[in-house]
Amino acid sequence: MSTWNPENDVDLLSGSEDEEEVSMKRDYHGREAILFVLDANLQTAGVERLLEALNIIRTAFISGMLVNDKDLIGLIFANTKHSPPPLESSALDNIVMPDNCAVFLPLRQLTKPIVEHYLEFMGGVETQFADVYGLAEPDGCGRFDLMIRLCIEMLEKCGKKLNNAKIAYLTDVSSPHPSSSNHFQAALQKASDLEGKEFEFHVIPMVDDFDYEPFYKEFITLSRAIELDAFQVPDAQMLREILADRKLKQDFLRRCLGHFSFYLGPNLSMSVQYYNYFQRRAYPRKVQILRRDNSVVRTKRVITVQKQKDDGSQDIEHEYQIKVTGGWYSCNVGEKNLRISTDLLNRVRNLHKPQMMLLGFKHRSSLPEVSYSKPSNFMYPDDQSIIGSKRLFRALWERCLARDKIVICLFMCKRKSIPRYVALVPVEAPDKEEEKSYRSLLCGDGFKIVYLPEAKHIRHIDMQDWNNTENTANDKKVEFFQKIIKKLRVDYQPNLINDPSLDALQANLLALSLDFSTDTNGLDNLLDTSQQDKRIEKLLPDYEMFAAEAEPPKKRAAKSTTTGASAPKMVKIDDENLKEYEFVKGLIKEEALASCTAAQLQFILQHHFDVTMPKSSTKPKLVAKIEELQM
């Protein structure tokens, strides 16, 4: 999904004012497919650049198998001299193979044999690639338009329903043909085929100073149906990192979570969509396997209804099985038993469709900077469901930015959900200086949906224990540590900050399946302690304002009873103090009830809790009973 850009939203002004709401049935289901196309001209600059491109694809294969094995991935070598068939040659029976192209892997789901086949190929690619595939003669330029036609045909005939299909072309050549040749114009015409098929084309430059002007700037703008001036040169290094690390792409995957109508008032609404800023890492589903052959145990839930006889006995008169949808909920209302079927319950839950309703506006300063009740979402318009939504959305977004306002709404994100109060905060895309950072993947022009906390989300903390004079500091000391914290901040790098437990699990899976180890110390590499020491080195002399910390005197370790030493004596507790309930609460809090005798524990139970325990009760039982009653 491309980010909504109001500056490029010029087609909205052409719509008429009398256009009514249009309901269109759109299908958002399907798989994601990525087709790698590697330019054989990479070997002309040395085998190192070719190996770098192949290593990017290798990392994408391995991480893609961990993220989502349902995605389809393929690999084509372009501008080759020879065209050897792939391992699965029957997959190309209905596809017309052009010259100077070789299919190494048709679009398939990633499996262990496929990844092993690619790893085996990479083992001898340095010496075998030039002999097996070679380079197109005489100038290393094959037909770019025929290569695009091959990619489109493979995507269309992959046998699976696709929702998001991409062609990733890894090259270091700025133009596939001279600008004066007929092949150059034929290649540009293929861009309209990509736009009509809704296939995305991405150039992955293998050099940092790649020039898009000769060919790819015009080709990409034509394939995406955008203006030539709207094209922005991406950062080549970032493109290579995102293409290689499928786990990193999963964090920034902007897949739509839902579509709903935003009601601004009577007879005024627009269609919008929303997605998560970060994707939740899904752990592999736990299964039970048999010990003898490691086969998966499949369970089936069965609901049985039994009817007992009316004579008061426990005998079963009738027994039958029902489906999950055939069950019911029962409750007693007065003297009658009320049955509510699951179908009726679902009808009550589905009284309202997913929607958002405007309540009012507030100044932006009234909203805290951080709200911890629920992660925020991003909202953007959808002009294909209600025509004119982008125009109305843009007007609301611009006015909120100009007046520094936020929108308070009531939001029901999906069916059977509880409506929540939310605040729509207008956000802008990052500046040009930040376009080459990972922040550009997270931010866009639109509204950030901030979920407002409710009473159940606010905790009540007892400040009495720690908010005392010993823990206070003057303004100068607080300002000093604010500077320390500011110096120790690090830039967010999503390729290094991952879920440690999930990374360890995936590393174990790769070690068992493919027999190689991976580096999972990304967070340790990010936090360089020597660099942190240099940052705070200038502030350390000011640390003298704090008094030196007094080290507690070291106590001599007590001898254990196993060495013949006597058990440590317990401090005697006065019986008069046990009559005070606050004193007893202090013993419970400090876990010092064991210092009391059994008679004193019996006295505590009788005097404060009105409970009498047998005289034969041991001290642990008496202590446990007092702690249970105190809770």
The whole-number mean of residue pLDDT values reads 80
- CATH top level class name of the domain at 29-252: Alpha Beta
Which parts are unreliable, with pLDDT below 50 for 5 consecutive residues or more?
6-26
Do you know the CATH architecture of the domain at 29-252? 3-Layer(aba) Sandwich
Figure out the total of helices.
18
Assembly state (oligomeric): single chain
Question: Going across the major beta sheet, what is the strand order?
Answer: 6-7-13-16-15-14-12
The proportion of residues in beta strands is 15-25%
CATH H-level name of the domain at 29-252... which superfamily? von Willebrand factor, type A domain
Shape: extended
Explained architecture:
- One of its GO terms (biological process) is DNA recombination.
- Keywords: ATP-binding, DNA damage, DNA recombination, DNA repair, DNA-binding, Helicase, Hydrolase, Nucleotide-binding, Nucleus.
- InterPro entries: DNA_bd_Ku70/Ku80 (IPR006164), Ku70 (IPR006165), Ku70_bridge/pillars_dom_sf (IPR027388), KU70_core_dom (IPR047087), Ku_C (IPR005160), Ku_N (IPR005161), SPOC-like_C_dom_sf (IPR016194), vWFA_dom_sf (IPR036465).
- Belongs to the ku70 family.
- This is ATP-dependent DNA helicase 2 subunit 1.
- Residues 6-26 have low confidence and may be disordered.
- The chain is extended, with a radius of gyration of 34 Å.
- The strands form 4 sheets. A 7-stranded mixed β-barrel has the order 6-7-13-16-15-14-12.
- The relative contact order is 0.08.
- The longest helix has 21 residues, at 47-67.
- It is built from 18 helices and 16 strands.
- Among the domains are: 29-252, von Willebrand factor, type A domain (Rossmann fold), CATH 3.40.50; 256-280 and 355-457, Ku70, Chain: A, Domain 2 (Beta Barrel), CATH 2.40.290.10; 501-536, no CATH class; 577-629.
- It has helices at residues 47-67, 112-123, 125-132, 144-156, 182-197, 216-224, 236-244, 246-251, 342-349, 389-403, 439-442, 475-487, 500-513, 522-526, 529-535, 581-589, 598-608, 619-630; strands at residues 31-39, 72-78, 101-109, 162-171, 200-205, 258-265, 268-276, 303-308, 316-322, 328-333, 336-341, 355-363, 377-381, 405-412, 420-427, 446-451.
- The two termini are 53 Å apart.
- Helix 1 (47-67) packs across helix 7 (236-244), helix 4 (144-156) runs parallel beside helix 5 (182-197) and helix 17 packs parallel to helix 18.
- Helix 5 (182-197) links the parallel strand 4 and strand 5 (200-205).
- It is α+β, with helices and mostly antiparallel strands.
